[in-house]
Amino acid sequence: MSFRQAIGDEPRGVSRTTRGFQPWLGALIVAVAATVGSHVLLRFGGLEMFAFALAGIFAATLFAIASFRNTLIPFIIWIVAVSGFRFLWFISSPVLPDLYLDRMMLIWLGVIFLVKQVALRRKLRGPYMLDGLILMHGLYLYVRVYVQGLEYLQPWFMSIAIPYFAYFFAKNIVDDEKKIRTLFWALVVLTMYYSFTAIMEKYRIDSLIFPKSILEYKELEFKGRSIGPFAQAAVFGTVFALVIPLHLYFLATLRSQAGRLLIGASLLASFAGLYFTYTRGGWLAGVAGLAGAVLLNRRRFLPLVAPAIVAAALLGTFVLGLGQDEFMKKRVENEDTLGSRVGTAVTTLRVWRDYPIFGVGFFQFRGIREQYVAPVEAPLLGTIRFNQFRHNPIHDIYLGPLAEDGLVGMALQFAIYFLILKAALDIYRRRREDDHFAQYMLPALGGMIVAYFVGGLAFDYRYFSVMGALFYMAAGIIAGYKRPERSHVPS
Q1: Burial 200-219 (b: 16+ CB within 10 A, else e)
Q2: Which of 159, 274, 438, 460 is placed for a possible disulfide with 240 were both Cys, Cβ 3.0 to 4.6 Å?
């Protein structure tokens, strides 16, 4: 079997003459290694360790074969690991950084991608202007971290590098409609898990909550709110907002009645899960994301959303009794949170006024905010006392990064946003009736993008990687999309 056959790039049945390395020699090496390894495991680890290692080797071999044949598989597993499962399995190191699941999958994905690119002599997908801006922005922030000291390398990697890797791999791997549809399915199934977990948290059915670490964090800080595998209610709510629009794609394209019922039930459950996070920013982002998706395809999506919203309202009112939810009323009527956000935003502007060009430094706002904290007079809110927000971190993706990264950093960031939106609008304006991507997939991705921008008004994504990874994954798909002559997915 040739390398191209092994990685799924050449059909079977191609006759080749193999010289040099003979199959019997490879089999002999494998047999010797297996014999020696088995002897060592049995002698020092016992039968249990031997069986565990054997199962692990078998699973790893299957995963390696599948990864080479279809790079989308390790990409999806990496995205899922980033989306709440990075702590499921990790390797601790006393010297090097701990290898969590998302890091291991990123390394594996990078190796597989590089091997296939070199072996098959493939070029990266263009155009490259957006790629260049992303590289410039990432390097600009990395230089700031390097100059400040590598203490903030981990936040840079989580909040900047991982989202930009998501863009790069999505653009070069998720390159046709079938792959996009497969990725959408994976994210919708992930949303089903989110919804189930959020509902179980709300009604304290602890035996069905996974992972159990959710219960520990819930007791410490987020009583009454669903926090999911992120152990943070605001993150959970924003992620819900990002992935909910994908349901509209399947409701509009699935032919099976059973499939549409399943997706419809998942959509209603995701409404409930989003609600149970009790995160006003997430609620607003969810509404905006759905509205954005519907706006891009009113004819097909509006008839689907309207009944779902009515059903959700009736279910919540008469079955779940959300109208008597006292906790929700406290969250909505609590003006202290809104006031503290406004006070923090004003403080970031005061910092930026003194550091306009390059900002105060990456993740440096916390170190100097005490010097700029003062009471704030705000319309409708009146006087906001400084003790309401003096210890607050940045709470948005616009004014906060402006204070830390300056006009240079924000100019690069907004240029990136501009090119992403331009690429999406160019595809949308040139759409045709038979263009499956532009008619169905692009509106769902557009809903994700709208939810990201709106959610960023009240929440700083830079402390986490999942929101940025999902957003830049969508951006990479849009930036690398090339309209085929004929759609391979039935409308």
Answers
A1: bbbeeeeeebeeeebeeebe
A2: 274
Q: Give the C-alpha separation, 428 to 424, whole Å.
A: 6
Distance, CA of 441 to CA of 478 (rounded, Å): 10
Q: Determine the distance from the C-alpha atom of residue 185 to the mean position of all C-alpha atoms in its chain, rounded to a whole number.
A: 14
pLDDT at 13 over 60: no
Helices (H), 203-256: 213-220, 233-243, 246-253
- 3-class secondary-structure state, position 377: strand
Asked if 280 and 395 count as a contact pair (C-beta separation under 8 A), the reply is no
Q: Contact at 8 Å (CB) between 475 and 420?
A: yes
Assess whether pLDDT exceeds 70 at residue 101: yes
Residue 337 is predicted with a pLDDT of 73
Structure tokens at 199: 């509902």
Distance of alpha carbon 219 from alpha carbon 213, whole angstroms: 10
478/481 Cα distance (integer angstroms): 5
CB 263 within 8 A of CB 488: no
| For residue 171, pLDDT beyond 60 | yes
Q: Among 246, 247, 263, 290, which residue's Cα sits nearest to residue 473?
A: 246
